[in-house]
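EmrB/QacA subfamily drug resistance transporter
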Amino acid sequence: MERTRNRVLLVAILASFVSFLDGTVVNVALPAIADELGGPGEAGLALQQWVVDGYLVTLGALILLAGSLSDLHGRRRVLAIGLAGFAAASVLCAVAPTGAVLVVARLLQGVAGALLVPSSLALIISTFDGEAQGRAIGRWTAWTGTAMIVGPFVGGGLVDLLSWRWVFWINLPVVAVTLVLLRGVPESVARAGRRLDVPGAVLAALGLAAAVLGLIERYWAVLGLGVVLLVGFVLWERRARDPMLPLHLFAARNFAWGNVATAAVYGALALGGFIVTLYLQQVAGYSATAAGVAQLPVTLAMLALSTRFGALAGRLGPRRFMTAGPLVAAAGYLLLLTTGTTATYLTQVLPGMLLFGLGLAITVAPLTSAILGAAPPQDAGIASAVNNAVSRVAGLVTVAMAGVIVGGVLDVDSFHRTLVVVAGLFVLGGLISLVGIRDRAGDAVADV
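Structure:
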């Protein structure tokens, strides 16, 4: 039994790791991609935008559908399909002869990536419970969070030493190992008598796609259309006999408030990582690899402490950790206000990174545990998908607002202004958790 549980956890970590890694590892390869495939000026810039945006649009649009599919058809089966598709799309990215082919491959990669995270977390929820579940989610959080943070470092090294194409080739061995391990994972029981909510799936996919595209490209009419479609999705789900998203999930206090806290915390996380990476390279003169190395202390803190805080949250409840963690992370970003034009690493950057890493390690595993622990195990896939959709869209919103916050020119003053906004979002996340999250057992809603 213990061997099977360890295998499930390893599969869940590897499958999610490759998806999160691909979301960040590409960023530092964009200049090299534009040089080879994009051409000069606006053509190169447009290609860079769509290499990133293509993945995010399809990932964001289909993640709710993917969560529903994992509940209906079995987590192991959906995960295997996602892994195979992700590998195939990665090969297409790596050999892309033109920019257009690369963008299409990234769109396909986002489709496959959407199948990975909800199924991975659902496997953990259905396999572990109690303090063991908190510890397992802590380990999952440590490694998947590490993938997001270490991505720029790995990508910078591959681009500098080999070629930008290797940021896609590195996915293949991870996927291959995961598929082999997945053969020993038992299939979850599919939901008997349930069918896919086709109208709900269409409304959710189109609504999320339009909203994400509108936010990324600042097409406000498209964003408005996405909001209308998502409102239509909620109205449909209220009357559907077999809804894709059971709205009774939000009757669980921790699920509802936890997702509100997720929006604040992950919005801060996305904006903070974005602005720090840009500032270190464009103003302080760090290389792509050096900028990635500068943020490694956050990775080390996550690896060292996330499992411990996940286990503590499983035993003591998540509220105190979800309150204190964002406040500590906010203090880390405020400490970065000492950073000047040269961004001296040991005295100006490292202290803030260490404090931020501690706050993040305190926060993420208890946050994930609180939300998924409030949902019935049979709805773990869609519950995970909702939480992932919230975190992705929150990050898109804050990064889309970066231009407004910075004011057009990234310098010391605008960097400091953005740091204050990031810290404010973290504080908001901590206060939301203090008000809304409860530690009592039995918060999960009944399956109705």
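Residues 441-448 have pLDDT under 50 and may be disordered.
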